[in-house]
Amino acid sequence: MSAIELILTKAKFIAQQCPQPSDSSLERAIDGSLTGIVTYIKVANGEYQMLSQYEHDIWVFPASQGKKADKACDLNLNFATISDTQMKRMAKWVVWNKMKEDLAVGTLRNTLCHLNGYFKWVLNSDTTAEHGLTAFTSNAYVKFVNTLTSTRKGEIKPLVAITKVHRFLVLEDLYRYCKTFDFVKEHPWSESSAYEQAGHVGEAYQEARKKAKTLIIPDEVLIPLCQFTKSYLDRADEIIASAKNKESLLLRDSCIFWLLLTTGMRIHEILGIKRGAYRSETKDDTTYYYIETISEKTHTGLAEWIAPKIATEAIDILGQLSTPLQAQLEQDVLNAKEANDHAEVHRLKQISDHICLAKSQKKKNALNILSGRAISEFRLPNLCKQVASDWNLAAHQFRRTFANYVVHSELGDLRALKDHFKHWSITMTALYAFNDNLDAELFEELLREKYLVEEEIKQDWFELDSPIAGGGMAQKIKKVRQDGELIKVFGSLQNMAKAYSSSIPIHSTGIAWCTNDDECRCDKSEDCEHGIVDKRHLPYWEGMLVQQMKLMQLDDIGEIGREAARKGLERIERLLSAMGIDVAAMKQEINQREYIEVKNVQSKRKSDT
């Protein structure tokens, strides 16, 4: 096809498209005469293929406009579910206008869903249907939504504020885009907003923003999962060579587990990774790896995530696992071309070379990207079963768990898996300053988690029944938290704690918190002016007590060594006593445990002989 023919073909196709929103097109939308192409794909030879038209009840979107793991039904908008003709026309006009704002298909689908819910409520009341959209009927709708509930984790609860916000926003959309339709009479709440109607403003909104809703995966669940999944990564070559389906699935799930845990990516971002889509660079003798993928959550597009080496190893393993599927995909592309199935060619090219390819058993083994829903609802819970855990593991929990581990790493807390996070630090602002491709929202998530962790730690210090010990700072806090008059001034102990703790810097020395705004240089932070020991440090101090007791039992350390051990023991006993611990009882319990361990060893030796 010549260049002139291409231009003519394009011009002819453009002429068939639905016109941009305007007064004239609005008039046609109102009377139902508006027509034209709304979605299409560009195929070979510069030609186009129409997918849906404005007058159709189902609008079909191309795979390139959805998420990588979207099913075919996720790319459809079905207006046929709205029975009333005028309401259907309004819904189409609202969605068409929002399409022009380049909103994601998922957002458009949610808008249609909430419009449908509102219209169904309207049609169930003859009076409301007759009055249309007014402040009075909108207020009635707010009261109705406030009665709705949802089931979360087996519990029936009222709708959360942000869910109600989305239900109310569609009323504002109707007023904004459909004022000239007979149904729309006035603004739903002229001196208010959807957010205010849902109670998602002011102090309640700020508290909701600070409060994390997603659970952190607890260590007693996470550590066995890490051990189990790492064993699969270590045996990757053996498992791939054996081609055992069950083992291969667990290897794939283990790789996804480590990508979720060590990068902070969302599941759809992991599903968007292509083979070998990472790079490395070395700064100050530390090697950083950057994984490249598509972020569709915030319309970022191509973005990068900092990752440890184990994440790149997981990508390579997933690439090997997907090799046979990639070969099938390339053959399917050829078959689709021969059949002139341009939509299928377009779809397959969108998922080509991705590391999370999968076969759809329901559609004759058609290839697609692995479903994010299947991972969260089936594959991740299955990993928990492998380690005999009943934890309800889901993909979204990893992002906050990741942030929590990074924050504790930054604070210097001694936690399991810290080696996997040693490359990460919230103070790595330089890496963000010089790389616009990094996920800025993840950085904000880390800062938010840092605020939550620090607030939780400091809040405990001000609780009357929470034991703390240390130098000057600890004594000041003890004095403040007992001042009843001061608490009255702030209104509550919690408000007072926030006011005082906001200006207190914090990082860990392992056995205490240091509140110095500079690096801690003393070796006895529990006695330091800036040092605070709280309940989180008790396991470390008990461990040191065990060590010193063992040292005192040695007869070959000399007088100097024995004196050092005695002083160390006194230091530990003094701290534990200050924390309200019965040191004598603790020592007795330690001796009892040691006695039982010795007896068990002797018994084992006898049975072996």
The major pleated sheet works out as: 4 strands, antiparallel
Overall shape: globular
- Mean of the pLDDT scores? 85
| Helical content class | 55-70%
Describe the structure.
With 609 residues, the protein is an alpha+beta fold. The protein folds into 4 domains: 208 residues, no CATH class; 223 residues, hpI Integrase, Chain A, CATH 1.10.443; 71 residues, no CATH class; 69 residues, no CATH class. The chain has 26 helices and 15 strands. The strands form 6 sheets. It has a 4-stranded antiparallel beta sheet with strand order 12-15-14-13, with helices on one face. Helix 3 packs antiparallel against helix 4. The longest helix has 26 residues. The N terminus is likely disordered.
Topology diagram in text:
Elements: H1 3-16, H2 23-31, E1 37-42, E2 48-53, E3 58-60, E4 76-78, H3 85-99, H4 105-123, H5 126-131, H6 135-145, E5 149-152, E6 155-158, H7 161-177, H8 194-197, H9 202-210, H10 219-234, H11 236-242, H12 245-263, H13 267-271, E7 278-283, E8 286-295, E9 301-307, H14 309-321, H15 323-338, H16 342-351, E10 357-360, E11 366-369, H17 372-386, H18 396-411, H19 429-433, H20 440-462, E12 469-470, H21 472-481, H22 484-490, H23 493-501, E13 507-508, E14 513-514, E15 531-533, H24 538-553, H25 558-578, H26 583-608
Antiparallel strand pairs: 1-2, 3-4, 5-6, 7-8, 8-9, 10-11, 12-15, 13-14, 14-15
Helix pairs in contact: 2-3, 3-4, 4-7, 10-12, 12-14, 12-17, 12-18, 15-16, 18-20, 20-23, 22-23, 24-25
